[in-house]
Structures
1.
Amino acid sequence: MQIEFSPGSHWLIRPSVSVIPVGDGVFDFFQSSTRRSVRFRLSSEIASVIRGLDGRQCLEDICEVHNASVPQISHLMEALHERCAVEPRAVRDAIDAAEHYRVLNFLGDYFPAAELFAAFERLRSTRIAIVGCGAVGSWTAVQLAHSGFENFTLIDGDHVEESNLNRSIFLHEDIGAPKVEAIASALHRISHRVQVRRVREHVHDANGIRALLSEARPDVIVNCADEPSVDLTSEWINDYSQHQGVPYVIAGGYNLHLSLIGMTVSPGVSACFNCSRITLDELEDKSLQGVRRLWRPKRNLGSLAPLTGITSSLATSEVLRLAVRSERLRPAMWNRRGEFNFLTNELSFVNLPPRSECGCTSDGKETDKEQRSLI
Amino acid sequence: MDVYISPDSVVHFVFLSTRKRLRLRVTPLLIECLEWLDGSASVLELDERYEARASSLDVKHSSSFTSFIQYLYGKGILVRKDWMQHSFCPEKVRRYSRQLNFFLDIEESEAAATALLKRIMDCRVALIGVGAVGSWILRELVQIGFQRFIIVDPKELKLTDRTRNAFFDHRLIGRPKAMVAESFVHGQVLKPETRAVRAPLDIDTNVEELIGSDVDLIINTADEPYIGATSIKLSRYCVTKRLPLLVAGGFDAHLASLSEMIVPGQTPCSDCYAKHFEETLRGWKPISHPIVDRRRGFGGLPSLSAFAASAAVLKIVRLLSERGGDIEQGRGEFLFDQYSIDSFKVERNPECSTCGDLGRLRAHAD
């Protein structure tokens, strides 16, 4: 979008930005959605212009009222626009009229007005493949559809059972239906524009998953498959991802679906799953080294819906960060994984850096691939 | 639970859901017998097998296998094979078995885990506001077994709710949100008891007339005119009735707050919070924003709504739990930038005109 800083242009302070005088002519432009801020020192004339920047008058007219210099104000608008503190009136009107105005306002903390709608369009058109449509997978799919994503491939061979209802997005009326069909119905209730490829198949091996993903050709993969184990499915998806240059998010399945937040992998940019295993092996609990684990088949493990909600919310946020494909909003789960503690409400993270001995391309050598993956 | 055995005969019991651990030094014979505890034999049969094994190995022992089982049962490490069936019908067991297993980790006994689910099923919740956070809270409460609700919201579902309301269905645009939510509850829970109220919570609303007197917990997510005003009104009502109040959503950055649980006499009330922030934010005075009507100007993501709702529901579970820890006194929010949590403690104001007397009464009673 072409943005003008000319004397005749109309600008306003973004509604979600607060301007706080902190003394000595310095003003804090505070983004309330993301709690980020930037400071500028302003002359009294320029500060007066800022106080009246409501988008109704053009820059030239406001400057005349406050005896301020038009080139100075234009220059300041360029700086404030780059830092997402101001926006042109035309962009504000477009956001107000948009169905996803809240998402646009949020992204507006990261993307200047000139780039905002293009970023949302990249999000909207991103092809998502969700492998495994259980508790975390179903929640993630629905949150993505609410966010504006419209193109999904759902891969799961299971049917909805009553025992799924206490932590998944499935409804009582879905019992007996294939999970991918039940989620497709939920997504279509949110938007009839959503397109869903339903793949009613179990994932058994690396070849199988490669074939399914090659057909789906996703831009982002979300791994929520924990059968036979999340380690195995992540290994298979990692293999596909590294060969095809497709980023993925490990959404759930670690340690019993509780509240673990998996890592995000962008081939050639961040640590891959195999890198993480090298580090995790090194970090293995020393107090349990050399011990034997008692074999206990048929375990029925604990789960709780709000913990699924937290895991899936972070997975959804990571997909959004990948989908906008910009340095302005990078994944927060590159090179780490996290855990939310039920008892203390605390989030903790383990750093999982790229490992040169892994052999993947995440050591920064292949910068062309990095650019391709990010932009 | 994972069970690890080290060469020096120490058994490590690891509660996976909570990461809690228990270490026991036991005899090699008891270690061997641990693998028998798979629910296929009765305690009596196990005891006999243990005696036979001890005899064949010519091992002397001072106590029976039964007493070892009793010890592990008391620690919440062992459960009866069909413990859920003793308290719940098959349909409830099918739906809540994994959740009951989680509760077992938290509460550490079958009886306490069972009691927690029953408290959830019996709890009468008044939910004020079915919006970006309220709708997700209700959806999760229904999932974990709550079934008695008074649902209050004055508005209808509209197109822009697509980005934030958990009950959004484009076929239902124009229907009252309270009724849409009530219909959802009826479709999902086993024994629903609900009342939908299509009305606002205003400054002059009579709270008891709005929600009735038969309520155990109030959840406030109503942010019009703003969350501070609706919370103070409800908090004052809750203090007089000694009812817990959960304030969720609606704060400034409003979609990723961790919520505040207000328990009269134990935690700060909304007036305490207001006083605290009046003092701590005294020097933080933004200029009057040039845009007068900013209602469509704030951001939000569905994933942040889900996070805030999940954090709120966890607080409710902890409130009803016997071992869920102390009720937090303070405020916190999830920051999207690096996924950090910014939280700080707020103390009760002993001079609070709303709840100060409760503290004095409590101190006197102690």
2.
Amino acid sequence: MLLQIRDLTVEVAGRDVLHDVNLDIGPGEIHALFGPNGAGKTSLFMAIIGLEDYKVRKGRILFKGKDLSGMPVYERVKLGIGLFFQRPPAIRGLKLRQLLEICCREKVDIDKLVFELAMADFLDRDVNYGFSGGEVRRAELLQILALQPDLALLDEPESGVDLENIALVGRGINRLLERGMPCKDRETRAQRSAIIISHTGYILDYVDADKGHVLYNGTIVCSEEPRKILETIRKYGYEECMRCLRRT
Amino acid sequence: MPSQDLKKRAERAREKPASFGPDLDLSVYDPHPRELPKTSLTSLSKEEQRALLEAGIDPLETNRSGSYLQMNRSVVFCQTRAEGLEILSTEEALKRYDWLESQYWWKALEVDEDKYTSFVELNWQRGYFIRALPGVRILRPVQACLFLAEERVAQAVHNIIIVEPGAELHVVTGCLVSPALKSGLHIGVSEFYVKRGGRLSFTMIHNWGEEVAVRPRTATIVEEGGIFLSNYICLRPVKSLQMYPTTYLKGEGSIAIYNNLLLAMPGSSLDVGGRVFLEASGSRAEVRTRAITKGGDIWTRGHLIGMAPNVRAHLECQGLILSPSGLIKAIPELEGRVPDVQLSHEASIGKIAKEEIEYLMTRGLTYEEARAIIVRGFMRIRGEALPQELQRLIEEAVKASTKYLL
């Protein structure tokens, strides 16, 4: 198993935001994570990557068999976890090109990536500064492509993006997860895994997820075939998920 | 030679305190140091050469159009390497050109402005005269260095730069103390003239010492279509620095841009501003300051005065507090005197945003690495189409100082 989450309870500012979460992700698997606003989806990602404010109160997270508790963020990244932010901050004075160089540590041919994602104009601009919603997503995508993580945590990659850009982002994610990377020195395997948080489900028109989960009030309440979950949510909303749960 | 009238006015202002900054006791410094012999840049000691380099002065003069080095009161090296460029001491220049005194000497600044302008007039010790002849574009920087070489010396220079019509000139001034030296006083009166369609970039890098007091007095007059760009970098400890350089945009469509990059270490006090009088229609100005405190105090001032129709100007200050003590105080002033002006300002002061550090950590950096990158990014001076060599030189100078910061 690549990622194993066991009975995870996470606290932020004195309040539990996740309770007893259990989740297994195998190599090469893509999982979709659904849930209403405030359900704890982003918090789960932040806890996996290890940000300071997200304190694991109970349970543990294992990645490649290693217990992540107490491990600093950069070591988790080196171990192969990559995070695509939904709302990344802007950083004045740091060019996107410089950030990509930090991400890829010379493993990836940045120019080729940039060409394919039509991001050449952004390389010499300050990271996320004055970027539109679509540009922010594409910049995040470039970074995650440069990071080449074994587990990609994709936080609403389609939010605030027009249809044309969703296709572009979708293709980029596919590229990351299926077709390997334009490496300078080696072809990497296509055994990457991902968790994709999606509010609308649009991204799943481009990326085939193997499993779906609904997170509600900090707990995974349902694990199903992703299309089925999506259909229910689209038709009936999350209330129906709750009704369905009460029935079972 | 300067007239008796100037001397009289200077005498009357001998005790006149400046509008800003702590009042200095000038009597503790020696304004009459001995003359030093002529030398070459490469015959200075290794330590001194390194100090020059860190202040943007290349002892080998690589890609430089000329050099001027004044140690204490003495001009020890002066050389022009470009056609249409004049570099002299102001003493020499006043002898050579009789128009200099009548047209340029104390014409942008008032001799009785305060005790510091007065001090320079009464204890005048040369300074540089740099002039680009009409239509000549000199893209390689001219380097001018004002060097305090002995303990408790007062350096009182009067500099003049003239960019004749249609000419372009880039000057980098490195002001520093000998590495072994601690205390001293530097007062530089600088009057710059950018004629019609001329372009002057003036980059000043200050690498002073913990006990050095500094009072530059600078004013620039820009004619029609002229551009004046000032980059000021002070990232080393200094005891007390106060300056409020002023530009008078007198010609239609003229432009002034100030970039100030300041760092206050514990015990340092910096009071730095930028003031622009927009006197002609269509003129434009920007004053941008990046201020960082690691325990010292910074007052950053800006003053834009819109006096003609269709002028546009902006003040910007960003402050970063990197230690529990220290002060950054931004004091912007906007003054519109006619209806059709567009003046604005923005300022923010704070610590490094945690979310920015964490974002970079998720790209594989440690906390310290992420923090250093954000601070370096904060310190990046936005280039205004500077020649490559000058841009590189500024980046090097900032980089050389970063080690004191992180």
